Predict the 3D structure of the following.
Amino acid sequence: EFSTTMTSDGIVVPEGLQNKVTVYYSENANPSKDITDVSNVWVLKDDVTDWSKIKSWAVDFGDTVLSKGDEYTFYYNVEVPFGVELNRESFSHHGIYFSLDTPEGKYRTQTEPNKVGLELN
């Protein structure tokens, strides 16, 4: 029912993963997960010129391996437009693509939550 804007802080990477992951941003609402696909127009934080146009973000873990039990929290701040009525909702889509190490090799899979959003009360 309304749109939020990511602040120029961008995605805040947890201390234990800084310098191990790369965060990309895109003005495309539905880019593919392929960071190398130029049609996605993925850029780094320093190359974002207008944060109000950012619609997608991706965190590339590269060769970083997470162990069972590891927990990290990524977050970002958003600005809510002035004048939004109370009891209005805004939702976003999030997906995670990852590989599990199995005895047969890497198993590529993905998951996503049903809804992630906020409601103004």
